[in-house]
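[step 3/7] fold_predict: job queued, chain A
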Amino acid sequence: MFLSQIERMQYARDRITLGLAIAVAVVSAMADSWLVATPLLLLAIFLIVWGRSPAATEAVISSLPMGSKLLLLFAYLDRTISPREEPVGDNERRRHLKKYWSRMGDTEKRGLASTLAHGSPRGVSRGDWYKLTKTGLVEGHFEAGRIRVEYKDLLAERLKSEGYLS
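[step 4/7] structure written:
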């Protein structure tokens, strides 16, 4: 993954906390309506499991039918639960890029180059696109994704210097 150990722990803690909050609310309301309580309790259990073991949970979800769409939905949910700070200045963007660049594999870097060259994630696997969305360098759904505008020039410069773009 592209997140540091501390960031992963923070996001996992946020998911677990939300899951526990939903579970407490559901258990207290179970006497009234089990039709509402049951899906909420299942969501709470899912959030707790996702917080405890995110990689395994995401692997199981990606193997399901329409798993890639579910992963995008969960990425959105994750950003809603645990919003990440957005870099603002050019120096902040450079630091942000440097932070994730060293953790990226060759396939992710080629995917960024392809997306930059073609304007869409052509030739990028769904799994790699999902990983790239977590970095904040790209945005959008797999079929219609793009490089975030504020990172285009920095990525082009970096990809050219390393031979991924000509």
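[step 5/7] annotate
The longest strand covers residues 138-139.
The radius of gyration is 18 Å.
exit 0
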